[in-house]
C-alpha cells in the first residue's frame, strides 16, 4: 500500500528538498500538478482531495489559503510556514519537545513545523525551563547565524547574483516572525532578545543561547538536564562536555536531519553558551517535515532521513 502525498509549493526551496527525500520511496506516491497551474486554486484543491497528507511549503498567506481550500476534505496537513505555529488548533511539529508531543503528532490532522531558528532555540530553552534551570521570566538573548537558503528563493537570488554581503545581521526591531513560537513553545513569559544573521553559505545554522551560571546552574547541570531530555532520541544529540572543541561550524550537519546541542563556558567567570547546530533545510524545515510525515503515517520516523 502506498500513501498519497501532495507537496504544495514543491518547486520552492523547502518543497524541493522534501520532494528529493520522498521521490525514491516505494511507500509514497507523490501527487503533482502541472507547474503552470501551481497557483490555481482548483488544481490545488483537486490535489488536496487525492492526498492522504499534504505538506504546505508556501508563503504564509498562501498556506492560509491552502487550509481554506482543504475545508471539507479528508486530508491531513503539515505546514512548513509560520502561519499556524502558535495556533492552538495545530500540533507543534517538534516531536522531541516533551514526552507527549510525538504521540500528538501521530494523531494530528494539522501539524505546524517550527521555524529553523525556532527549532534550535526551543530545543535548548524548553527542557531547561521544564528542569527549572531557566526561569520563564528570565531575560534571555539568542544569537544565530543561518545560511542564505533560509530566506527562500528571493534571498538565494541575491547571493547567486553576488549582490548580498558576506554576512549581515537583521531582525533588529525585535519583531522576527519566530519570536512568538519561541516564547510559546519554550515556556517563556518574557520575550527573548533575538539577534539573527545570515552568512554567505547556502545551508546550515548555529543558534546560541548565552546564560549566566551560578552554583545551581552549573555547566554540568545544564548539560545533564539536556542530555536526560534527549536521551534515546535519534535526531537530537547532546554532545559530551568538551566535544565540540574551540570552533563550532554551522554547516557541520548539512544534508542531515540531525541537531547537535553543546554546552560550553567557564564556571569561574559564570559565563556559558549553549549552541544548537542544524541544517535549516534539514531539521529546520524539509527533514523535519518528512520526520513528522513518517510519525503521522505510523512509520519508523527515520525512513528516508
Ligand atoms: N527556507 C527555509 O530554510 C525555511 C522555510 N520555511 C518556510 O517554508 C515556506 C516555504 O519557504 P521557502 O521554500 O524557503 O520559499 P520559496 O520562496 O523558496 O518557495 C515558495 C514556493 O511557494 C510557491 N508559491 C507562492 N505562492 C503560491 C501560491 N499561492 N500557490 C502555490 N504556490 C505558491 C512559490 O512559487 P513561485 O516561486 O513561482 O512564486 C515557490 O515555489 C515559507 O513559509 C518559509 O517561511 C520554514 C523553515 C525553513
Ligand atoms: C535566513 C532567513 O531569512 N531566514 C528566515 C527564516 C527561515 C524560516 O525558518 O522560515 P519560517 O519561519 O517560515 O519557517 C527569516 O529570518 O525570516
TrEMBL record:
GO terms for molecular function: N-acetyl-gamma-glutamyl-phosphate reductase activity; NAD binding. It is an enzyme of class 1 (oxidoreductase). This is N-acetyl-gamma-glutamyl-phosphate reductase. The keyword Transport does not apply. Pathway: Amino-acid biosynthesis; L-arginine biosynthesis; N(2)-acetyl-L-ornithine from L-glutamate: step 3/4. It comes from Paracoccus methylarcula. The lineage of its organism: Bacteria, Pseudomonadati, Pseudomonadota, Alphaproteobacteria, Rhodobacterales. The active site is at residue 116. One of its GO terms (cellular component) is cytoplasm. Keywords: Amino-acid biosynthesis, Arginine biosynthesis, Cytoplasm, NADP, Oxidoreductase.
Amino acid at each position: 500500500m502506498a500513501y498519497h502525498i501532495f507537496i504544495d509549493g514543491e518547486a520552492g526551496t523547502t518543497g524541493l528538498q522534501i520532494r528529493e527525500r520522498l521521490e525514491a520511496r516505494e511507500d509514497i506516491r507523490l501527487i503533482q500538478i502541472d507547474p503552470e497551474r501551481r497557483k490555481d486554486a482548483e488544481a490545488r484543491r483537486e490535489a488536496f482531495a487525492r492526498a492522504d497528507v499534504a505538506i504546505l511549503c508556501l508563503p504564509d498567506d498562501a498556506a492560509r489559503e491552502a487550509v481554506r481550500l482543504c475545508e471539507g476534505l479528508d486530508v491531513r496537513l503539515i505546514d512548513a510556514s509560520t502561519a499556524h505555529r502558535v495556533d492552538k488548533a495545530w500540533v507543534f511539529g517538534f516531536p522531541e519537545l516533551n514526552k507527549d508531543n510525538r504521540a500528538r503528532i501521530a494523531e494530528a490532522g494539522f501539524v505546524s513545523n517550527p521555524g529553523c531558528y525556532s527549532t534550535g532555540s526551543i530545543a535548548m530553552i524548553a527542557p531547561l525551563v521544564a528542569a527549572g534551570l531557566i526561569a520563564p521570566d528570565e531575560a534571555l538573548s539568542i544569537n544565530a547565524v543561518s545560511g542564505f537558503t533560509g530566506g527562500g528563493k528571493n534571498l538565494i537570488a541575491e547571493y547567486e547574483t553576488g549582490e548580498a554581503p558576506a554576512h549581515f545581521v537583521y531582525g533588529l526591531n525585535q519583531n522576527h516572525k519566530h519570536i512568538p513560537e519561541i516564547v510559546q513553545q519554550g515556556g517563556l513569559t518574557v520575550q527573548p532578545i533575538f539577534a539573527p544573521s545570515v552568512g554567505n553559505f547556502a545551508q546550515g545554522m548555529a543558534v546560541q543561547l548565552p546564560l549566566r551560571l551560578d552554583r545551581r546552574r552549573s555547566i554540568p547541570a545544564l548539560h545533564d538536564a539536556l542530555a536526560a531530555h534527549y536521551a534515546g532520541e535519534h535526531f537530537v544529540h547532546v554532545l559530551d562536555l568538551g566535544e565540540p572543541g574551540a570552533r563550532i561550524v554551522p554547516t557541520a550537519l548539512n544534508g542531515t536531519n540531525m541537531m547537535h546541542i553543546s554546552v560550553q563556558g567557564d564556571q569561574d567567570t559564570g559565563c556559558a553558551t549553549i549552541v544548537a547546530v542544524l541544517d535549516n533545510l534539514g531539521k529546520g524545515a524539509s527533514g523535519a517535515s518528512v520526520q513528522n510525515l513518517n510519525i503521522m503515517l505510523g512509520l519508523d520516523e527515520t525512513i528516508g532521513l
